[in-house]
Amino acid sequence: MASDRMNVRRRLHHVGFVVSSIAQAADSYALSFGASWDGVIIHDPSQQTRVAFFSIDGADPLIELVEPAAEKSPVSQFLSQKGGGLHHLCYEVGDLAEQLRSIRTAGGLVVRKPAPAAAFDGRRIAWVYTRDRVLLEYLEA
Amino acid sequence: MNSSTWETVRRIAGDIFNLPAESLTPQSSPESIDSWDSLQHLNLVLAIEEQFALEIDPEELERMNSLDAISRLIEGKLASEA
User: Fold this and answer.
1) pTM of this prediction?
2) A105 touches B at CB < 8 Å
């Protein structure tokens, strides 16, 4: 419910890993994390990615696998140059604008302004790179 | 292009990309520097923000596609703040 969402201040929603193929990596990730997957792969044209979420004992955070959906996908270079792997942390926040103001004050760089994301039923996400060199995704609650 | 801005950008880029500053030219870009990947691009922008006390907007990130473009963007922002 919207009122419940607004009460969410900040929680770790998922940990994102970049892979070349969700289908090929799914079994291995599920085994490594003791996680389960419902078999759903979501295509997000605006992000040029496909993603899948894995649950560990039904609790937060989720594990997200991300694969490029286009040659120029934002994760393509990470995949080709780093070989994929741990990519970002995503926090669900109650006030996205306030969170971005706060991280900007802390010296973080807003990489992508808030925009609706297909993976979260149109809820807005924003991307930030912190001064500690960590890529963060913020998901509006 | 202001030589002071250019020399500072070149020094920062050399540090980030682990290259001799002298080897970098205004035309240096992600296409010509192997280590200029998406994450190193963000590291470069963070270092530039810190050095020049500027804030770079998300829309400006993609326009920073060469050292020349970066230097000119910095000069434009500094001029608009003056």
Assistant:
1) 0.88
2) no
In tens, the pLDDT along A64-86 reads: 999 999 988 989 989 988 899 99
Exposure b/e, A8-34, CB count within 10 A at least 16 = b: beeeebbbbbbbeebeebbeebbeeee
Ordered alpha helix ranges (H), chain B: 3-17, 38-52, 58-61, 67-81
Q: State pLDDT tens for residues B53-73.
A: 999 999 999 899 999 999 999
Residues in chain A with CB shorter than 8 Å from the CB of B61 are: 111
Distance from CA of A71 to the nearest CA of B (A): 14
- Which one of B39, B59, B60, B62 makes the best mutation probe of the A interface by having the most chain A beta carbons within 10 Å? B39
- DSSP structural state of residue B69: H
